[in-house]
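Sample intake — Glycosyl hydrolase family 13 catalytic domain-containing protein
Collected from: Cyanidium caldarium
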Amino acid sequence: MDPVTGRVKPHRPLGKASPALRGLSIGTKSIERVNSFGLLRGYRLWPDPTVLERERIRVFEESGLALSPSRKLHVRPGYPYPLGTSRRGSAANFALFANVPNVRLCLFPPVPLVGEQAGHGGIVTDMVEEIVLDPDMNRTGNVWHILVEDLPPGALYGYRIGDVPRIILDPYAKYVLSGAVDMWMRYEGEMREIPVESEHRSTSVNCYFDTPKKTLTDIKFPFRLARVCTEHEEEFDWQDDHKRRPRIPLEDLIIYEAHVRGLTMQMPQASAAARGTFLGVVEAIPYLKELGINAVELMPVFHFEELELCPFNELELKFSPTTGEQLVNFWGYSPVSFFAPMTKYASDKRHVSREFKMMVRALHAADIEVILDVVYNHTADASAPFHFLNDAKTWYMHDDQGPYSNLSGCGNTLNANHPVVIELVVASLRWWVSEYHVDGFRFDAAGILCRDDDGQVLERPPIIEAISTDPLLSSVKLIAEAWDAGAMLGSPNYLIGEFGGKRHEHRWMEWNGKWRDAVRRFIRGSPAMVRDFARSLSGFFDLYAGRRHGPCHGVNFVACHDGFTLADLVSYDEKHNEANEGGNADGIEDNDSWNCGHEGALSTGPDGVVEERHRPVQQLRRRQIRNFILALLVSRGVPMLHMGDEVGHTKHGNNNSFCFDGPINYLPWGEQARVDHDHLWRFVKLAIAWRRSMRLLRRKHFMSWRDAVWHGVKPEHPDWSDQSRFIALSLKNPRTGSSLIYVAFNASTSAERVRLPPPPTDHVWIRIADTNLSSPRDFCTVDEADILAADEYWVADHSTLILQAANLNANSEAPHAAEANGSLHLSSDMPRASSYVSASELEDEAYEPWGTEEATQVAHEEATQDRQSN
């Protein structure tokens, strides 16, 4: 500002010669017009100081592509809070944190977001206003702000900050313009119509070029815009969702990790418009209900970057070296906005927020909770961080390895414990809870949330304190992936059993990677794993002792989006990521997998049936998959199933399929898929239903001598030696001491003749599951189960047996005495039990032995002895 006249000094656009200026007079206020970046037109204020003192108001006339005919924009200083855009009556307030000397607000007209309308296919073709904010009037601290009246509904905006020539997205943007027809825009040069293949859809994009027709790879400086929020966009009829929200206890949770697009793209009953969208998830609810899950953990739905940028901010298309297909960021771990839902996941991009809310409302009505996988550890654009570039020292960690620390493994690391970042993250979480009614969050690479700006691990991270104590978040579930990629940089941060610290550990659940590793190793037959496997089944007392929800602080999983699918875990010894850009250089090397004797797919005949020579391998793989499922569902803690594992979905050995938008990441649907995988689908569905019906399997207390007895091939004689690959367990009613469930795991290469513990008086054992049997005998409902009258059973190699105690009807005939023979099968025509364990015997919530000092001490001594012996 000129100290004599009080006027703002003329602005010199970056990269241009001194512009030709033309003064425009509007009443008592003058505006200077400047040419900036080719076709864009900007305006700089030349305010009359007396007018500013009296009215503090500025008026801008429209030019170029007008917002609407003869519309005037009335501009006031605005408010520094809340950040982002907010409504002040009929005006829109803009507030942006930016520690820079100057900020410009760029306004764009509304555009149709569906179809080829308005002659430009929904593309932003020009800016209508560029308002240069006055540091004296529009800045409070490091927050820039301005109030703009009379903006039309759907107006778009972005910022230009400091010396950065790009148009920057508001970090607090609630809606981000994106999609095939508007993803990449050029703002310098001549406008030409060019055909573009973007996001796997053929469309036509208006772009500005100085030279003749080019391909998409030539577009520079792509930018995204936010939509100014309006009151009517926030209106939604939640009906009685506040009453119907599931609020499922931790011990009852069955989590299903799913991808919105992957779940619905091949769903035959969904309309073409609904596939790949939030509304498609609504149509998948009957499938989820039949499977028996009651919580979906959706992989990232924040607006994310599908296509990456190279170090010079240029679009960088990538293709598979083996298949030639375009590679994209399909999984979504590349966030652009922490507040806006992914526009591509809407059937109508204008109403993405409404469609997300419709999905949540429908899931809640079906008693299914919604947990979001959130990424607060890094941002998109590995080499050129987008809107946070204005103050990289605030937003990102730095180290000696390069301009940005890479503790996330994705090119940059968010400086999560800076006060500004903490405010952003907490505001984001609050927004998703209050606006979208989500039930919980899974924090990706949450170890980063426990580091300071130098990457050092903090004992009491401020961001964890803020999240854990926030009153609005007090009722939602918090799940941490309690590690990060620091081990690659010599800075490991593996916090399983420690996340949240003593002050806040009761608020956090954890993806239990130790459970995953121990179970994988034992089931495949690794030596010296029987103790760790038993610890996994019992809920990891040594990790979660003293926590409010006991073993339910651990989320158990065999497979997730990272790594092998369950089917590939038993089919491959090595990863096969040759189709990825890195040519098999990416992905985890050690997967604790076993191919069961043959690497990869099995040979089939013309009829699609596996060849005779590979039948034993096929049968063994099927047993192993079932063994994993049963280990997951009988363990204390919260089970999580990865999408597709219930039908044996394979990714052909690719353990890092983040970059494929195709069948490799889609849930297989249709009649043929059901025929191919119905045997496994049935098994998983019945196993989940059985867990949900058995209170003994869903306790929030650790196993102890009061309700659990360990066995070997003889009752109460477990073999804890390093050579042991067999372990069995009886679960008892704590009030009566009666064994109600018997589970045996045989991970050895030979069958074991097992002496069974006696069932309770007037009860018999019925066989619920034997993974060595073929479908449908591999898992039976109580009404279908065979009675086991013998006191011995042959448990096949690499198989699992589950028995349940049943009370025979006094009027029924006594069953035949029968025992398993050498073929390991029992007669299918044995009499059934006419009545079973009563609900009162299974329901023992009124009895709480775990709160006693004696029980806790015994369990602690058992765990201590185990650790010492190891």
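Post-analysis note: Residues 291 and 685 are 5 Å apart (CA to CA).
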